[in-house]
Amino acid sequence: MTIKDITTYLEGFAPLAYQESYDNAGLIVGDASTEVTGVLVTLDSTEDVIDEAIAKGCNLVVAHHPIIFKGLKKLTGKNYIERTIIKAIKNDVAIYATHTNLDSVVGGVNFKIAEKLKLEKVKILAPKSEVLMKLIVFVPVSNTKEVLDALHAAGAGVIGNYSHVSFRGEGTGAFRPNEKANPTIGAANVDEEVHENRVEVIFPAYLKNQILVAMHRTHIYEEVAHDIIMLENQNSEVGSGIIGELSESMPETDFLAYLKQNMGVSVIRHTKLLGKPIRRVAVCGGSGGFLLGDAIGQSADVFITADYKYHEFFDADSRIIIADIGHYESEQYTKELLKDYICKKFINFAVHLSETPTNPINYYY
């Protein structure tokens, strides 16, 4: 089993196309064709994590946070980033990161937090738009099933919990081949009419190339009449944060205690309590302040996230409780998520949860 086998599997769950523009997810160090001896899953890549990987016989580190965000012009070991990269290269340890792409998908980082909090009716808080495309293609009726089967196999026609979704409308296609054409149906310089289906399917935009390959491979026409349209529709399967509900409402102080216990945190920074029960909960692991308006707009009672600055707490404006539980603390269970997902498919090598503490923040009580 190679590194590429692992990364391809992970990217089927959290496609790299869904990472934010500033991000650097993907294979950061290593040769994708290398055979895997073991995987160490961590939140952060550090020198100590690389040492742990070496000690455990793991030549692949799967991390949430990328060790490199900006381009490196030199590798001299002057800081922890360069030292980590140098140590990984010297010891043939590959580093792979799945970051904001894992934040953005159903079943990803925020859904793991929702699981820890036992939330119900969980959905994406701020779905992304312009990540879906529609293919419209005109196909002879006799060729329609073959083309649709290929498009579905390539990833088209999935909407939420439904697959093999398409629209078909029958009509008449008309054309006249010239002398250079090699028509499947008809003859040069003769008007032809064919009973056709107008077929429409939706697909994730990052699959565009393979969708077109599937269409051309199975369509019987020499020239395929088709349109591809970028959709403004929101994709309920991709986006930022989540929102869900507790099975029963809780008093605010009880909820904060519940949050502290279930997320394994030692301290919570929060805005003033509003004297209202907590039922509807919005969550964004890591730095999620940009989603406050979405949380308020969807009537959340509390917004759980991290990295809030002093003045940003005022933005709650007595409309919601902001609960900052810390960046590391909010994402710490991502390791479990990744290990469980990898172990579902790969059983011929060990997958370890890193035991190296990587939280750079300490608290004095």
Automatic annotation (TrEMBL):
Key words of the record? Metal-binding
An MF annotation (GO) of this entry? metal ion binding
The residues the record assigns to binding a divalent metal cation 1 are 65, 103, 327, 331
So where does a divalent metal cation 2 get bound?
64
What the entry lists under Gene3D superfamilies is as follows:
3.30.70.120, NIF3 (NGG1p interacting factor 3)-like
Could you name the domain of life of the organism this protein comes from? Bacteria
The record's Gene Ontology cellular component field reads: cytoplasm
Q: Provide the assembly information.
A: Homohexamer.
Q: Which family does it belong to?
A: Belongs to the GTP cyclohydrolase I type 2/NIF3 family.
- The protein, known as: GTP cyclohydrolase 1 type 2 homolog
Organism name: Emticicia aquatilis
Q: What is the lineage of its organism?
A: Bacteria, Pseudomonadati, Bacteroidota, Cytophagia, Cytophagales
